Structures are given as C-alpha cells and as structure tokens.
UniProtKB/TrEMBL annotation:
The keyword Kinase does not apply. The chain crosses the membrane at residues 40-59. Belongs to the membrane fusion protein (MFP) (TC 8.A.1) family. Residues 254-322 form the CusB-like beta-barrel domain. Pfam families: Beta-barrel_RND_2, BSH_CzcB, YknX_C. This is RND family efflux transporter, MFP subunit. Residues 113-238 form the CzcB-like barrel-sandwich hybrid domain. It comes from the Bacteria.
C-alpha cells in the first residue's frame, strides 16, 4: 500500500515524495524542525547585532575632536561690541507754538469817536509814540477852543483885581481907605488868579483828552493784528484795535514732560526750526513754567527769539534744547529691541550664552542711542540679529568696534 510521507534531507530541507512499498524512511518530528528554525533566527539576530557594533565603531573612528567640530557647525555666529561709556551733549527735542514774547494789546483810551484814518497795517514796524489811527475830534477841538477863551477871561479878571489892589495900597497910606478894604481887594485878586489856574487846568485836560483820541503805539514793535477800519466808531469799550509785539521779539512755547523740564535751566541755548522753513534760529530759554498741567503732565519752556519775518506767531516749530552732558553707554539702534515688557538688549556672558538685559534708553543722536539704565558699558552686546536669538542660546561671538 502506497502513502505520502514528508522526507527531510540532511540540510534541513523537506519535500513531498512518494515512497514505494517495502522501503523504510525515517521521519523527522515537528519539534526538531522548530528547534532548527529558532537556531537560524538567533544566528540572523547575532549577525545584525555584530554589524551594528561594527558600524558604530566605523562612525566614531574620527575621534572627539572631529565630533566637536561637527557640533560647532550648528552654533550661530553673532557680532558683539563692548560699548564702554561716552560723553554725550544732552539734547531735548520739543515742539510748540510761536508767539510774541511781549504782546501789547492797543485800544481806544479816550472818549472815542469815529475813525478817520488808519495809518498802519499788520506786519508794519512802528516806533514808540507813532499814531496808528486818527479819531475824529471836531467837537473836542471846539470845546478846547472855548476853554482857551475862558482862560483869557479869567486872566483879564485877575489883572483888574491886581490893579485895584495896587491902587488901594497907595491910598491906604494917605488914609483914604481902611486896611479892611485892602484885605478885600487882596482876596478879590487871589480869587481871580485862582480862576485863571482852574481855567488853564481845564484847557490842559481837554487838550490831553483830545490827544488821547488818536491810537498811539506805546512802544516800538511789530504790528501783529489790525482790528479797526475806516469809519468805525471806537471807545474805551471797543476792545483791542491793534496787537503789537514789543521790539518784534518772539518766543517758542515749547511743551515738554516734567522730567525733561527738570533737566533745563534758564539761559540754556536752543535751536528752533519753524514748520515749513529750512532756517534754524538760535534762542535761549528765558522762563520755565512753574506749574505742571495736571491733565497732560507737561510744562512750558519759553524760548526767546529775535525778530525775523520767518517767525510768525501762531505757527508750529520744533526746538532742540541743550540739557548738559551725559556720560553713558551708547548703542546702535539695531542692538535695541522692545516688546510688551519694554526695551531690552541681548548680551553674551562668559560661557558664550545669550542673556536678555532690560534697559532704559536716553538721548537719540546721530551716533546712536544712549542707555541710561541697565548697562555699565563692559558687557558684550549683540549688535544685530537679536530677533533670531533666545535666552540661553549658545553662540560664537565676533567682536567689532563699530557702533554703526
């Protein structure tokens, strides 16, 4: 009887074959096949492990120096500077409005009347005592003439009284009149002379009033405003007819914070540039506001300026005011960054790691920005690329002496 049997060769391979009747073939058990398979798997694993170990040794044959060099290629290189401390001329920039340093409002001071002539206009230069406008005085002139006639009448009465007294003095010695009559004549003469003085005083008053009818410049200066026209009736209550700037002097009302105001003193120099003008005028701070506005927390520094047609009251101007000398580190603008916490810079410590340092900036100059707080000038400050760094980063430094 024929049957199928699995024959396993000596190399562990098996095949299906037909065994003829009468032939005895030894059969291999399944558990022996499993043991042989496990040995093959173990040998494969060992070979892989040996290969991995050999590969590790091959990769590390270059030594620690080469590995360190490979690691260094990942470290960024940054430019740093040691700013030191520089002496900087302090400057404060402020803006404000131009105005007349001593504004003089001029109005009618007499009894007033109709304006018959206006002799100056805005922008004209006038001298002290110059007539700015002429007011009608026809009625006042007649009143003065009448009073002048009264002076003549009083003077004539005084002369008659004096003559009567002189004659009486001659007669009293002869006994024709009494001393009482002399006293009466003397009193009459004194009263007449007093009436002359009263008449003359009234005449002087009328003439003074007539002189005040005209609008007169109280001092030399520049006419800023003209608020009167020909034919206008003016009086003491008509308000300001002319606005003058005494001697043409101007000033800048520079608004600044109370901190900046505290750094200034009277007499410091200031450079003023009016808006829309390429000219710069040199002046001096002549007054500092003694009061700080409670709402804006600002005060006013008044900068005196000499007359120039380019300085127009009411115009806008910028002032650069000197505020002494400041000794502090100075950095380029690229080294200073800011965020919600304020201004800061990155410095590199002795272990070449990046550290954030909060700073307070001061004066802005053409050479850089001064640092008033946060640095002493001996630190290595990152000049550029600070935005790509983070606290604690490892860097390589390249020292530079340029601050630009």
């Amino acid at each position: 009887m024929n049957y199928d049997s699995k024959i396993v060769s000596g190399d562990g391979l098996s095949a299906e074959t037909r065994v003829p009747d009468g032939v005895d073939v030894p059969l291999v058990a399944d558990d022996e096949l499993d043991r042989r398979s496990r040995r093959v798997i173990i040998l494969v694993i060992v070979a892989v492990a040996l290969l991995a170990v050999a590969l590790w040794f091959v990769l590390h044959e270059s030594g620690p120096d080469d590995a360190a060099a490979a690691g260094n290629t990942q470290i960024p290189v940054v430019s740093v500077m040691v700013p030191g401390r520089a002496s900087v001329a302090g400057e404060i920039t402020a803006t404000g409005t131009l105005a007349a340093r001593r504004a003089m409002p001029v109005g009618a001071v007499g009894e007033g009347g109709e304006v018959r002539e206006v002799r100056v206009d805005a922008g004209d230069w006038v001298s002290q005592g110059q007539v700015l406008a002429v007011v009608d005085r026809s009625v006042q002139v007649q009143a003065a003439a009448s009073q002048a006639a009264q002076v003549e009448v009083a003077a004539a009465d005084a002369r008659i009284a004096q003559s009567n007294l002189d004659r009486g003095l001659k007669l009293v010695d002869r006994g024709f009149i009494s001393k009482a009559d002399i006293d009466q004549l003397t009193a009459t003469r004194d009263a007449a002379e007093a009436r002359v003085k009263v008449a003359r005083a009234s005449l002087a008053q009328l003439r003074a009033q007539n002189a005040r009818l005209n609008i007169i410049a109280p001092a030399s200066g520049l006419v800023l405003e003209r608020n009167v026209e020909l034919g206008q009736v003016v009086s003491g209550g008509s308000g300001v007819l002319f606005q003058l700037a005494r001697d043409g002097e101007m000033e800048l009302l520079a608004r600044m914070s109370e901190d900046d105001l505290a750094k200034l003193s009277v007499g410091v120099q200031a450079s003023v540039t009016p808006a829309g003008s390429g000219k710069t005028f040199v002046g001096q701070v002549w007054q500092l506001s003694p009061v700080i506005d409670q709402e804006t927390r600002q005060g006013i520094a008044r900068v005196a300026l000499t007359y120039d047609r380019a300085l127009r009251p009411g115009g806008f101007a910028t002032a650069v005011i000197r505020s002494g000398t400041l000794v502090a580190p100075m950095l380029p603008e690229s080294a200073i960054q800011s965020d919600a916490k304020g201004a800061f810079v990155y410095i590199v410590d002795q272990t070449d790691h990046v550290r954030r340092r909060t700073v307070k900036t001061g004066l802005v100059t053409a050479k850089g920005i001064t640092i008033t707080e946060g640095l002493d000038g001996t630190e290595k400050v990152v000049m550029r690329a600070g935005g790509f760094l983070n606290e604690g980063d490892k860097v390589k430094t390249r020292l530079t002496t340029s601050s630009k």
